[in-house]
Design goal:
The chain is of the alpha/beta class. Helices cover 40% and strands 18% of the residues.
């Protein structure tokens, strides 16, 4: 795993975790507005650069902890995770309970939090692999006009351009093994246990039009009844913060 630190380590620390197949640079639209007041740590997952392979969210979280311990960090203001990155954030939050590093908030944007059958995961792996393979051969405009991308964008494909451009770069490095393991990470979630006080630090954010809200939120609220929920009418997966572009 690679890491980038943006801002002064003396400022309150935010860890920012991207979604599947997505580079840390894709979060620039958020961290550019935070870097003067906060210190941002942005990991580049294994598998998203040459000579590396994504394995599991548990291993990614473990490497994150090893890194921040080397930075002599004792307090994290917020862990922010998008989609699969939100699942890694929850795993990180859990593993941090065994350290002397405290976390004030855990903000989870569009997290799947779901366990799917083997055949469904196999189908999703096929679809992801197909899309990423096409991304290696197409320019950004061609990608934005793909049927699946148009469906996600709900008629406004330009909102997705700042997200697709960096993802097209990551696609060049992703192996089939990494794609398979990220698919497994996305769709095999085991809901780590947290006490009521810790759950209260968790904020789940969903656009009401995203599939993750429609299919996953009930499980989230059952597992973490003391957590906080934020919903946005009319928005799809990870679309709300596009207003910052």
């Amino acid at each position: 795993m690679k890491f980038e630190i943006i801002g002064n380590l003396n400022n309150p620390l935010i860890m920012m975790l991207t979604g599947s197949f997505y580079p840390s640079s894709g979060l620039k639209y958020l961290y550019e507005k935070l870097k003067d007041d906060y210190c941002l740590i942005l990991p580049e997952y294994n598998g998203h650069y040459e000579n590396s392979t994504f394995t599991t969210r548990q291993n990614e979280a473990k490497e994150l902890i090893e890194y921040i311990q080397k930075q002599n960090v004792h307090t994290i203001k917020m862990i922010y995770g998008q989609s699969m990155g939100a699942e890694i954030a929850i795993e990180l939050f859990k593993q941090l309970e065994k350290t002397n590093i405290s976390v004030e908030y855990c903000f989870l944007d569009g997290t799947p939090c779901i366990k799917l059958p083997y055949l469904y995961k196999k189908f999703m792996y096929f679809k992801f692999n197909q899309i990423l393979k096409m991304m290696k051969k197409k320019d950004v405009d061609q990608i934005l006009n793909m049927k699946l991308i148009k469906k996600i964008a709900r008629g406004n494909i330009e909102n997705l351009r700042p997200m697709i451009e960096p993802m097209a770069v990551t696609a060049q490095f992703l192996s089939k093994e990494s794609v398979k393991n990220e698919t497994e990470c996305c769709y095999t979630f085991d809901f780590p246990l947290f006490d009521k006080e810790t759950q209260n630090k968790m904020y789940f954010f969903y656009g009401k039009e995203e599939k993750a809200y429609k299919t996953c939120y009930r499980g989230v609220k059952k597992a973490y009844p003391q957590s906080n929920s934020i919903f946005k009418e009319g928005d799809g997966h990870l679309m709300y913060f596009s207003v910052f572009y």
